[in-house]
Amino acid sequence: MLVGAAEGAGRAVAGRCHGTGTGTGTDTNTGTGTGTGTEGCRGTERFHGTGSHPGTGSGPGTRRPRVARQARGPARVTAPTRHSLAVMRVDYSPGSIDPGSFYRLLTAVIVPRPIAWVSTLTADGETANLAPHSFFTVASTDPPVVQFTSVGRKDSLRNVEATGEFVVNIASEPFLDQINETATDFPRDKGEFDAVGIGTEPSLRVKPPRVASSPVALECTLHATLGLGNSTVVFGRVVHAAVSEEVLVDGDPDIRRLRPLARLGKNEWGTVGELHERARIPYRDWERRN
Question: 202-222: per-residue pLDDT in tens?
């Protein structure tokens, strides 16, 4: 192997040699270099390699015919094709590892997850609860129904079951620290609005308050709950939506102005990065193109 004086090692030379001689080799990079080295060759051989790793080295050995190989380095990532080779995979079985480990796997690969910042009231109306839930999405568009999942029996779930109402406040990037603080396991009688210092505003159709600084609030009445294992899915019918004028562009909420947060794996949070726009392709157009 040729020891690189610049970045790495020149790898191999195509051809055959006996004793002392000169050989010319190529690799897939550009550049020039000369060096003597041990490359399975008896005696001494000089290599004039075209590559980015010029270097020197020497040593005895016995050369055998070999094909040129590319210098080692990070694997090149290419877009998948219909004929891509199968990738190497590691298998996980929920029955063979503990639930906590599989939970971490699920939350690391099902990403990014939008966050429902859910506000509720206790049955007596005395305590306003606020907590983030990242197992959140749209369940139906007509009628409009959203859903969030409570892993275990959290205060949000208890309050919704008791009152039949809640508000989904959109979690925006400027409020990351406050949102994270409302995930603290405060006692049931200690409201997160007061504890964290988050301003409220009255809702129009339901009793739980909105987060005053949130750009969007979806006021919901309980549609149904569904128990699944250690979790409960809460379905809420959206009876009113309040949207800040500041995030509207041509009448629609704009992602660049909403700046929604997302949960990722471990303790990671995500923000909106590069945007790509693609219109759906009608089948007749797809057929013409293909």
Answer: 999 999 999 999 999 999 999
Residue 208 lies in a domain: yes
75 located within any domain: no
Q: Record the pTM.
A: 0.71
| Domain membership of residue 36 as a residue range | 3-56
* Domain count across the chain: 2
The whole-angstrom separation of Cα 16 and Cα 33 is 20
For residue range 157-183, what is the model confidence (pLDDT) as tens digits? Answer: 999 999 999 999 999 999 999 999 999
Q: Are residues 8 and 130 in the same domain?
A: no
Q: Which residues pair with 136 in a beta bridge?
A: 148
Same domain, 129 and 220: yes
CB 176 within 8 A of CB 269: yes
Domain at 212, CATH number:
2.30.110.10
